[in-house]
Design goal:
The chain is mainly α. Helix content is 66%, strand content 0%. It contains eight helices and no strands. Helix 2 runs antiparallel to helix 4 and helix 6 runs antiparallel to helix 8.
Length: 221
Amino acid sequence: MNTFFYVIYPYVCLSIMACGLPLRYLYAPGQWNARSSQFFERRLLLWGSTMFHVGILLSLGGHVVGLLIPSSLFAKMGISHELHVRVAFVAGQAVAPLVLTGLGLLIYRRLCLPTLRCTTSAGDWLVLALVCVAALTGGYQVFVAHVSAFDTVAPWVQSVLALSPQPELMREVPLFLQIHVINGFTLAAVLPFTRLVHIFSAPVTYPVAAPVLYRQRYEHL
């Protein structure tokens, strides 16, 4: 199981994402969107979506910096291992409430508004469940467990990306953190088939887009 989850499974998930994204963009471009539900309700969406997106973007940035940059590079910059760990936990404790609160509002909105509940697809519920698992295990890490992942998870992620996986690094990692990691790769696998594809969209052509013309219609008396 250790070999499956930490050697085979990451490459399966990344391959599905790498192949699924261009296929969906080519064959279903009309479905490449976030399927906004603002039409049904705005107030909870504004607060929940803003907090969640700000928190998740900061969290992703922290994961990229913490997991993909080798500790040796931080040492060369004069950042000790202890300082690196402390900054990571302080940043996580600042960001986690945004993610958890925003996600809670979005889930409450989906569950308690009949119009939204009826228009929520199975893929939407799957995404919410996976994101919820990621947020809860991540919150447990920064507020309760305080397990340093820079000696185990980070080197393993770097070994996977270097096409030389070292599954033995994950053998002693606590179960909740293993769930967090596996859940993250699962999110990558389902990404091309859900509304999560919108994270790869950016309005880069907006400044040069043709203006939209609105004309007022006059009724002849």
